[in-house]
Amino acid sequence: MEQLVVENLRVEVGEEPQQRLPAALAQHLGLAPDAIAEWEIVRQALDARRKRDVHWTYHVGFRLREEAQAARLLDKGKAKLKRPRSKDAPDLAIAEGLPHGERPLRHPPVIVGSGPAGLFAGWLLAREGYAPLILERGPEVGPRVRKVNAFDQGGEHDDEANILFGEGGAGTFSDGKLTTRTRSPLVGLVHELLVAARAPDEIRYVSKPHVGTDRLRAVLVFLRRELVRLGATFRFDCRVDELLLGPEGEVAGVGLRGGETVPADVVVLGIGHSARDTYEMLHAKGVALEYKPFQLGLRIEHPQELIDVSQLGPFAGQLPAAEYVLNDKRRGVFSFCMCPGGTLMASVSEARHLCSNGMSRRKRDSGWANSGLVFTVPHEHAPGGGQHPLAGVELQRQLEQRGFELGGRDYALPAQRVSDFLAGKRSTGELRSSYPRRLQSADLSEVIPAWSRKPFAQALKVFAQRIEGYESAGLLVGPEARGSSPVRIPRDRETYLSPSTPGLYPVGEGAGFAGGIMSAALDGLRAAAALVRSRAPAG
Ligand SMILES: Cc1cc2nc3c(=O)[nH]c(=O)nc-3n(C[C@H](O)[C@H](O)[C@H](O)COP(=O)(O)OP(=O)(O)OC[C@H]3O[C@@H](n4cnc5c(N)ncnc54)[C@H](O)[C@@H]3O)c2cc1C
Fold first, then answer.
1. How far from 200 is each of 18, 44, 456, 496, 535, CA to CA, in Å?
2. Which residues have C-beta within 8 Å of that of residue 96, sequence separation ≥ 6?
3. Topology of 4-83 in CATH?
4. Domain topology for 102-289+489-536
5. Which residues line the pocket of ligand 1, CB cutoff 6 A?
6. Whether residue 189 has pLDDT greater than 90
7. CA 528 to chain centre
8. Does residue 425 surpass a pLDDT of 90?
9. What is the domain partition of the chain in residue ranges?
10. pTM
11. Whose CA is nearest to atom 17 of ligand 1?
């Protein structure tokens, strides 16, 4: 019997869903509780639209003991059938198993980067028997965490082991939000793989899944073991410095730091948005790259309690740390990567540059709430009108160098109270925040472009009307410059191949086809599926 679904069953704050839902389901269906053979939560969401009526809603999947009753419920519109949509057929095929192309590869596929795009591309290729080789410039997660902790405690920045480079990519030191708007069956596949790697089971059904950086680090180790079991090989501290090309400009292999070369007829390029040296190398090699409008701005932090009260009213303190979404469409400024109960951090991949970002632990219990406040940089505001493919990288570098100088050249984060930013003066007195290193009072208008300053200030005033205390208790830091990729590496929609470089599969955020952990993972899966359909494994 197929599974039926009932949507939007209500559970009050403080009620135990496992106890409440069977009775609520039976009551909704007009059946005795024992008519239901089995049930499971398929979606859980918090409805906080009305502050005095905050409650949970659940979609519940179930099977009945008697099939005849199911038909009656469907006729009456009391339940729905849980069926895949026809447009999901290609993604369902990826989840279930793929036909292989006929022309065999001569060498195992090389994957550059172990972020979500590279890892999930690697998982699919390994499952299909292609034995991929995954090359990662940074270290394994354990030594990487030690390097980042040492930096947070005042140590030196490491260009190869940091918030952005190393096992798991940029997602490792993150909020670990797995939010996505797509309803592709691949989302379920990624959830299953993460849960099998010890991510919390609830990510399969909560509307805004969150893993937390501490839990993600452990998940990555189990995920790596699974890939190795399926036939993948990992090499860490292994930076790709050169793409080797054959006589027709096709992929012939990669050159590693230190001079070693690895032959390959296909390379999956999942380098993320911060490998500026790798972008430069690709450009020099003639790989097609384009400027991509990207997000810039500042980051804002408040006490979490203030956000809880503004979002949950009388329910504040009884529910997990609250989030918010703010969008001033008129000025094009919006909140981004909100981290409830999170911490500020320096998201730096090059020494003597500084920019802000945010992450959180599973418990989201830091007592602080931060989010990026960003706007998009269109071609006309990029250096040289965005004609050069790396124009956005140049702008990021300019602002991040300024950020480093304003921070006193020791990775102190430039900071300014919202009220002082709006009044055009530096902040005085103690500035408190979750940033593990020092804060430095500064004029933050210096780390966003001149054209953006007025609309940014106007948007702050709009947001201050939506959240009480937003202006008086808010602290700005910045620049926030690594929210999205400033480069696109074009590719064919069907084959996923670079039009300039046969054999090259650009994937994930660094190629401009993803913006977050889930979308990068799905992009890696789809690109790997295109590879599998076109080539057979090396013999
Ligand atoms: C601080 C922070 C917090 C974030 N929080 C969230 C969040 O909560 N939820 C969410 O959905 N998204 C979040 N994001 C965004 C998310 O992490 C990215 O969208 C995602 O990681 C992109 O995946 P990717 O695989 O395309 O690239 P990345 O994750 O950036 O991985 C690229 C990998 O390639 C490696 N690499 C680069 N160049 C080379 C080379 N030449 N040789 C070998 N290896 C190389 C890098 O070291 C890196 O490990 C956050 C990002 C940051 C920086």
1. 17, 14, 38, 32, 36
2. none
3. Alpha-Beta Plaits (3.30.70)
4. FAD/NAD(P)-binding domain (3.50.50)
5. 112-118, 135-138, 163-166, 169-171, 173-177, 239-240, 270-272, 275, 278, 337, 347, 357, 359, 482, 508-510, 514-518, 520
6. yes
7. 19
8. yes
9. 4-83, 102-289+489-536, 291-480
10. 0.97
11. 171
